[in-house]
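Now read the record:
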Amino acid sequence: MARKKILFGNWKMNNTLAEAKAFCAEAETLTAAAAKKDLIIGVAPAYLSLAYVAEHKAGLKVYAEEVHYLNHGAYTGNVSIPMIQEVGAEGSLVGHSERRAYEKENDFDCNLRLKALTKAGMGGIFCVGETLKEFEAGMAEDIIRSQILVGLMGISEADLAHIIIAYEPVWSIGTGKNASEEIAENICKYIRSLIEELYSKKAAQQIEILYGGSVKPVNIHGYLAQEDVDGALVGGASLTAASFKELIENC
């Protein structure tokens, strides 16, 4: 079965509730445009907008930007899986480089979150990627291998079906410095080979692998044309319905 192309917006610490409402007013237009392209589209809003976007998604996939692995407890400032489930989220991003850098999350934290999400029957977009220093030292594959080995530790092939992997080179996120189409394809292909090594050829063929990092309407077509790039995780260009629609049209 052919893999679907996916376009997912990560709003980060952007879009107030009013701005989220303006985006959702155009949700039906976006999902109609995506259907014509046979695209799956979704967004990960900030927590304060999550319930509204989930209620007015009109066919969009809606994920949280982050989630704790425990269902409750004394963890001030965190949000649990039952909380995001209750407001209609279908899953969560896990291990975004900004969470790793600013909140000191590591691969073991990612593993706990992915296990908790899959146990709850929810989806996870697992972000992996290397820093500029690691890229220039030729360590990209080693870093990504380590992130995936630990992040997917103890996760069954059946549960892997709930997980999407997003390759986001840290040196290209929000910097305007893009990984070339060739780099994106080579790393996504390498990730697919790791999944085959860890699980099976069938699992490798089925898992969806996204590219993220300064993706814009002007370059998205080239990335999605690559054999092993199944879609994009987009930041700034996903914040308004107008720019999101342009992304869809250029896929």
Remarks:
- The chain has one domain: 5-250.
